[in-house]
């Protein structure tokens, strides 16, 4: 009897292993994003991939347990703090006692309200534990609120499916629908609840512009649907770390921790005339690094300006254009990360070319081209640089980035008509303007990029960042220099062109990650082993520790 049951359980006909995997994924995803996990469960139930009696309890159970863990964390730490003499004078103050009494009187209502008010759950649940709201009360109220919320999410998906019909059943775009619905729900609830309380959603025009233009949304908001799409693709291909196998010749496939110098050296080997060469700056301390820098400048006959940047970096972090020895000295002082010295390519133009080729194919393709515009401000002879940044419609949105970069010069008044270039690094996070560069795409350019790519060992998908002399030369596949090659985690960044809608961006990113997973799956069949998730996580933590020491990018 037991053997027959076990044989059926592990057979291809049994849906239980798949169901258990889906339920576990939903359960643990609630610890990251409750609402989208609930939407995902509802979509799986709607499409028949998971029975409702597994999907709904998994979502509800994960939400309820997450609430309880936050409560227990705060309650345990609060009791421990009260035992410490130095903390008692703060925790036993009249104001704290008044706050505790107020929370006990209104705690039940607050626990209900925070379930639908974005951004309030974490502080409310922590406060409930800290002021020792009775555990029974907390469990009953949060359990009821989680049950109502789960039912509402399932009902919303049912309503959407009834409205849009078969279009939501296409598995390729399920999570795009999920992300879109989640974002609309988030923004709608935020606007509606704050209107009711007569509070302004945005403090000033600057913040309002950021929220109404999705290209400037914070990463934690914009990438929620992308993360969900990634998780879905990982489950579908049975490997969340599968993208690390997409480029066997790059550490982690180019997800995190890859060396820029290693890629540039490989490109120099296969296409020296098309690559901006780079060299390692050696040294365990500042004086050794400075000596190495000066030695390279002399040995390689380099003239200022040059580029100094971290060997491991993302989103343009820490890239500096060095025009003098004093500027180099500033770049070389921080410890804790490796640097490289690279020839400066004046351009004057820059583009990002996203390329991919499936293993075994004779020729690769260009998925998209980004044309990069380096913004400038024109002085009026009266306004300081800080005022010019604040008064410019676009620069004001990234005022924090620009002001950090130009901190020593913010009170400088540019002359009338004088141009001030705001960014040197061709990265959107650093303030560069990205536009669709499809007009640059030609067969000659695609052939040249493919020719180089097929010579790079173990490379199948990623983005070339190139600087070039003129559009006509680039279209002919000539007159450009590769300044970086990014792997599987790079983006087809033309999506940040304002002409693209949010849905267009998610659709492109979905296609991109689908390609990455498919290439990783094919490489896995060819014997490439994906990097374990624990190793990816370790590399990410190491990178974050190093990135904290980077100087602001130019």
Mean pLDDT: 78
CATH level-1 class of the largest domain: Alpha Beta
Number of DSSP E strands:
11
How many strands, which pairing sense, and closed or not: the largest β-sheet? 5 strands, antiparallel
The shape, in one word, is globular
Helix content: 40-55%
How much of the sequence lies in strands comes to 5-15%
- Tell me the radius of gyration: 27 Å
What's the CATH H-level homologous superfamily of the largest domain?
ATP-grasp fold, B domain
* N- and C-termini, Cα separation: 70 Å
The number of helices is 21
Q: How does the helix and strand content classify structurally?
A: alpha+beta
State the CATH architecture of the largest domain: 2-Layer Sandwich
CATH topological fold name of the largest domain: D-amino Acid Aminotransferase, Chain A, domain 1
Count of domain modules:
2
As laid out across the biggest beta sheet, the strand order is 9-6-5-10-11
Residue windows where pLDDT falls under 50 for at least 5 positions: 1-12, 165-176, 196-208
